[in-house]
Specification:
The protein contains ten helices and four strands. By secondary structure, it is mainly alpha-helical. Helix 4 (79-88) runs antiparallel to helix 5. Strand 1 and strand 2 form a beta hairpin. It has helices at residues 16-26, 37-43, 51-62, 79-88, 95-105, 120-131, 137-152, 180-190, 199-211, 239-262, and strands at residues 3-4, 7-8, 225-228, 232-234.
Length: 283
Amino acid sequence: MPPVEGGIEVPCGRLPAFSLFVKRRACDAPLPSPPRQDRTATALQVPARVRRRMLAVTGPLFFNGTCYTTYQYEVNPSVTTNVHMIGAWPENDKNAKILDWLSTEMDDRGAVTCKWHVSYLYATAELLRLFARLEIPSARELARRAALCLLDSQHSDGGWGERCNTYDDPVFKGQGPSTASQTAWAVMGLCAFDDPHRPSLVRGIEYLIRTQNEDGSWTEHETTGTGFPKVFYLKYDMYRNAWPLLALATHRNVLQQAVTKARGRVAHGAPVELVDEDVLVRR
């Protein structure tokens, strides 16, 4: 599958579940199962030609007046759902309200908590990845704070990781053995700055390469998926392989884009500026 600017090309025809959803929703036929706004928004970041039409159809079903819910009647809205919605629909007239809500969800360290992946690393990294280039000042400020949080929580081995007890007490944020999947989330977030030689990013890539097994897989004993916080957690076995591979591919694309820029071609808008990493105190 050939690389393209900004990511790996994924033909829409190879996403059968999403294609079925598009076809059925476009003709208002009954859906085989209820749609989820987070999955819809994430999928629509790939086939941009249908993005506006689909979000215009599904968006009103899930907006509660302040932010989007992942599914109808959700009590506690998901940060990642709303991050993905803004990333997929940056021109949405509801984004100002959503950004106001997200600012209240972000703590003093710049972390936001995820309902679906163990605590803050995934949501914080996704916010950075998707907001770093948005031409919305408040979104870019959230991205800057998220980046500082990720830099400050990188472990001495170059990776990132935390355990499920983060949900019980925020004092445990960023504490726990580094894992392949959580490191991959942070790496993809930091790739948003288009600097493949950023020290923290290089250390994260080195961690993934160093911990890869001879057969190409990664070993991960920690649980990094969440069913319901403080209730039960999920261990998705493919997390340990799929996320690191995606992170390495994302970094490769950043390297390719750096070459393109060096030749005088700018691939896309510049990301937000970030403070020099040397001034940050890390664990």
